[in-house]
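> forwarded from #structure-qc
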């Protein structure tokens, strides 16, 4: 019992309870060790129990679709027991779990007889409410924009993002699947036909350097896949088939400027892991044991040894690392070749109701400018799990790393001044009409 008391102290719910209250709670509770797939609750069922998750992980499904994962330690199923409403989701054990299960009758009896227990319940509900408010505020902030009226003109660039924390996972997948994603005019990069890069980027302080953009700033996260390729001009690049920001403004800005194929996602960052949800379902989770800080030379050597098909000797790996370090010096950065990010901009015809026709189908080069790079770390034992079986990418990670960058984009973007063009139209029309009258008079004469 003493050991279980110690385990319960990991739950915020129990930290204010005295030993007598804990004993009463455990007297009517069941201590369970559950294997993957065991159901705890079913959506729509009556709530008869509350659960205290001490260890492991639970999956959350709504209408048969996986929408999230819950890590220990936490209290589960509390609200449905308090308000008497049916369960709003189904919970199953995702990773072997240790659970304390308390019946609704026992819970309500403690609620009526123990003030400290009532206070703990109130604190737990308040915490959940504040978390909901925080998410609501985050969603509201994601609706801010960079547009000006009238005509909803986009504030001009260049836009600056930084520092940007980039978590990168070097993935290996079926080469045919990757090649099928490339648009016409692009081909797999020789030597990397089965390799792609998954990045999780945290953008802080995105703003415009233009005077009109002063005071407008936002931040967001984005999950982005990149497929190495050779473009139409035989220049190596990175093709982006689809990406997931967690911010509406980032989604709109990318589409407005370049036609980025963006899709709103929900990105949750925990200790050593990141999860992505999109379309009301869980898509993937990337995780690692720890991030080990290192120099550019160490990271280069690590990537050379782990990502190549041929195992390099230590000497060659160290040489590759020193080359990377030399390329990241401030003097060398000015000589960096511009590796373009390529996206396929597609706009359907307005008349294409019954068949798919495109008014615009163009390969766009996105001119990102790297201004700073540093903050390197190796992600030890990287893992990427895919939960949506129809997700367009897959495979296994062979390496992971972290770096910090500062970049700019959107320089030179211009907007057509339709108002000015419209004001010129009558004068142009008058000039054309005058020319036509002159031609007619000469022909008649």
């Amino acid at each position: 019992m003493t050991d279980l008391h110690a385990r319960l102290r990991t739950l915020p719910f129990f930290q204010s309870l005295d030993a007598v209250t804990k004993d009463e709670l455990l007297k009517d509770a069941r201590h369970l060790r559950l294997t993957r797939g065991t159901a705890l609750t079913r959506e729509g069922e009556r709530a008869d129990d509350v659960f205290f998750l001490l260890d492991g992980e639970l999956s959350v499904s709504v209408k048969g679709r996986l929408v999230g994962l819950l890590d220990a330690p936490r209290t589960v199923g509390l609200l449905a027991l308090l308000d008497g409403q049916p369960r709003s989701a189904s919970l199953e054990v995702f990773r072997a779990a240790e659970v304390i299960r308390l019946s609704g009758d026992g819970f309500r009896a403690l609620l009526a007889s123990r003030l400290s227990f009532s206070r703990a319940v109130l604190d737990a509900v308040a915490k959940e409410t504040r978390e909901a408010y925080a998410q609501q505020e985050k969603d509201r902030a994601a609706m801010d924009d960079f547009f000006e009226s009238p005509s909803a003109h986009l504030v001009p660039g260049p836009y600056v993002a930084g520092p940007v924390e980039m978590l990168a996972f070097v993935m290996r997948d079926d080469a045919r699947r990757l090649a099928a994603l490339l648009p016409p005019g692009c081909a797999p990069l020789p030597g990397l036909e089965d390799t792609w890069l998954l990045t999780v980027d945290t953008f802080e302080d995105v703003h415009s350097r233009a005077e009109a953009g002063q005071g407008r700033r936002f931040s967001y996260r984005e999950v982005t896949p990149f497929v190495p390729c050779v473009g139409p001009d035989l220049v190596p690049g990175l093709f982006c088939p689809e990406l997931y920001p967690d911010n509406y403004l980032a989604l709109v800005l990318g589409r407005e400027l370049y036609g980025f194929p963006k899709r709103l996602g929900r990105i949750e960052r925990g200790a050593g892991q990141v999860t992505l949800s999109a379309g009301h379902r869980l898509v993937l989770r990337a995780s690692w044991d720890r991030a080990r800080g290192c120099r550019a030379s160490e990271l280069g050597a690590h990537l050379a040894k782990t990502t190549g098909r041929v195992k390099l000797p230590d000497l060659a790996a160290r040489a590759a690392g020193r080359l990377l370090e030399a390329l990241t010096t401030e003097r060398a950065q000015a000589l960096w070749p511009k590796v373009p990010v390529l996206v396929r901009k597609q706009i359907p015809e307005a008349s294409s109701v019954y068949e798919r026709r495109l008014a615009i189908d163009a390969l766009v080069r996105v001119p990102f400018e790297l201004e700073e790079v540093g903050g390197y770390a190796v992600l030890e034992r990287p893992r990427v799990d895919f939960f949506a079986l129809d997700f367009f990418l897959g495979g296994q990670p062979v390496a992971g790393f972290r770096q910090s960058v500062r970049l700019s984009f959107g320089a030179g973007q211009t907007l057509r001044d339709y108002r000015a063009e419209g004001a010129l139209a009558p004068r142009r029309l008058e000039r054309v009409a005058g020319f036509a009258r002159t031609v007619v008079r000469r022909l008649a004469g």
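QC bot note: Residues 222 and 348 are 26 Å apart (CA to CA). The mean pLDDT is 81.
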